[in-house]
Design a protein that fits this description.
Oligomer: single chain
Distance between the termini: 29 Å
Number of helices: 11
Shape: globular
Strand content: 5-15%
Radius of gyration: 18 Å
Order of helices and strands: EHEHHHHHEEHEEHEHHEH
Length: about 290
């Protein structure tokens, strides 16, 4: 049914600091030699998942705890001063280039493909990007994937203007299947069975999104496609084409957090899930030792 049968993919949902669950999961997998042919991340799934390709175990929890209370990293003052709650220059330049180095050489050497999704502010549709090298444009794509309306500015990169990929395709399983990834492990940051409901919040955002009506429309209908994606994932799991890793209960953290102990707690929940899943992931990927 798909070309290039046998490619193993990893699909990482976002969720801001709920993504520390994902960081714990993937650190355990890296420690135990689990490899994928490709990874696609959205929002925090891209910001944290890129460390799988650079093979930097522990980097995500380390820098999040270290800068948890640093206003340059994430703060209302950063939002008011720069238009970005997560400081763009700090998070996507100073941090990876000087304070907690991102291993660019290993990222480029590792044959695992790295993809992410963003949302085109003009159309409200998802755009996907494969990143092979690490430069300023790479960081801009990752930043765009994690730029939520109102707490971040749209990011101009590659000739377009983009916001968070979770607005239009938060779990891009169909995209990866279209590339020939016929076996996909999916990590979500909501428990299995979670469903989104129509929200009134998009109406509050409309006045602030008057320049980007397609984004406003995407927010209005987000729950519809998201729930359909979850239903599709359930079907693919039942068919043996996907494996879902999700927290057993809602994670005890909000999208934004400044408490290092709370961050560690969510990361540890992820590590426990990653450890519990080792045998099933190895079997699913055909990597039994």
């Amino acid at each position: 049914m798909l070309g290039n049968k046998g490619k193993n993919g990893l699909v990482l949902e976002g969720g801001a600091l709920r993504g520390l669950f994902t960081a714990g999961v993937i650190d355990v997998w890296m420690e135990n030699g689990i490899v994928f042919d490709g990874l696609v991340g959205v929002s925090a799934g891209a910001c944290f998942g890129c460390n799988y390709k650079s093979r930097q175990i522990g980097r995500v929890i380390r820098y999040n705890k270290r800068f948890a209370r640093d206003p340059r990293y994430c703060s209302w003052s950063s939002l008011f001063r720069t238009g970005d709650m997560f400081g763009a220059d700090f998070c996507y330049d100073e941090l990876p280039e000087r304070l907690d180095l991102f291993d660019k050489e290993e990222f480029e050497r590792n044959p695992m493909e790295f993809h992410l999704s963003v949302t085109d502010v003009r159309t409200g549709q998802p755009v996907y990007r494969k990143l092979d090298v690490v430069d300023k444009e790479t960081y801009a794509w990752i930043r765009a994937s994690a730029s939520m309306p109102l707490v971040a500015r749209p990011v101009a990169v590659g000739g377009g203007l983009y916001l968070d990929g979770g607005l239009s395709d938060g779990i891009p399983i169909r995209y990866f299947e279209s590339l020939g990834y016929s076996r996909n492990v999916i990590v979500t940051t909501r428990p299995h069975g979670y469903r989104k409901f129509a929200s009134w919040r998009h109406k509050l955002l409309r006045p602030f999104l008057w320049k980007y009506p397609a984004v406003s429309k995407a927010l209005e209908t987000r729950h519809v496609w998201y729930n359909r994606t979850l239903e599709y994932i359930d079907r693919r799991v039942a068919e043996g084409a996907a494996l879902l890793i999700a927290p057993e209960t809602p994670l005890p953290i909000s999208r934004v957090c400044h408490n290092p102990d709370q961050m560690q707690c969510v990361y540890d929940i992820g590590r426990a899930a990653g450890t519990k899943s080792l045998e099933s992931v190895r079997t699913f990927l055909g990597q039994n030792i």
